[in-house]
Specification:
242 residues, mainly alpha, elongated, Pre-mRNA-splicing factor SYF2
Length: 242
Amino acid sequence: GSSGSEDEERPGTTAEAEAAEAAAAAQRREERLRRFRELHLKRNEARKLNHQEVVEEDKRLKLPANWEAKKARLEWELKVEEKKKECAARGEDYERVKLLEISAEDAERWERKKKRKNPDLGFSDYAAAQLRQYQRLTRQIKPDLEQYEKLKEQYGEALYPTSNSLLHGTHVPTKEGVDRMVADLEKQIEKREKYSRRRPYNDDADIDYINERNAKFNKKAERFYGKYTAEIKQNLERGTAV
C-alpha cells in the first residue's frame, strides 16, 4: 500500500519540479535579455558620446593655438566691464574698488613685474616691430556687446562670414572708430618724429678716436669745449704750438 502511494505522489512531484525548472529557466532567460538590452543601450550611448567627443576635438584642432588664452582674456575683460558698470551705477570709483580687492602681496608682485618689463625693446627687425604694433593695437580693442547685438540683428547670418561670403564694401565704420584710428595715427607720427636716424659714416672726416666709444666722447667734448680749444687744435695741426 505504501509503495502504491509513493508511485501516486511521484508524477505530481516530477511535474512540479519541471514547472519550477521551466520557471527558473524563463527567469534566467528574461534576466539575460534584460542585461542584453542594458548593454545595447550602453553601447549606443558610448557610441554617441564618442561621436560628440570626436566632433569637439575636431573643433578644438581647427581653433588657433592661443584660443584658450584669448577666450580667458575676453571673459576677464567682460567681467571687468560688468564690474565697471556696477560701480558706475552705485556711484563708486572702479579703480578704488579694485585696489580694495587686491592684497598687498599681489600688489608688490605686480609692481616688481612691471619694473622688470620693458615695453619698448627697440628695433630689432621688421617682424618684431610688426608684432609689437599688432599687440598694442589688440590691447586697445574693447568689446562692445550692445553694438555687437545691433550688428547681429542687422546682418543676421552675414555677420559670421565664410569662405564664400562677399563683404567688400559693406562695412561702414562708426565715427568713434574713425576718431580712434586718427588719434592712433597722430600718436604714431608724434612718436616717429622723436626718433633720430643714425647718420652714415663720413670717410672725409678727421679720425681723432680709437673706437666708437671714444668717438662719442670726443663729440661731446667738442660740443662743450670746442670754441675754447679751436686755436690750440689748429696750432697742433700746423705744428706751431709752443
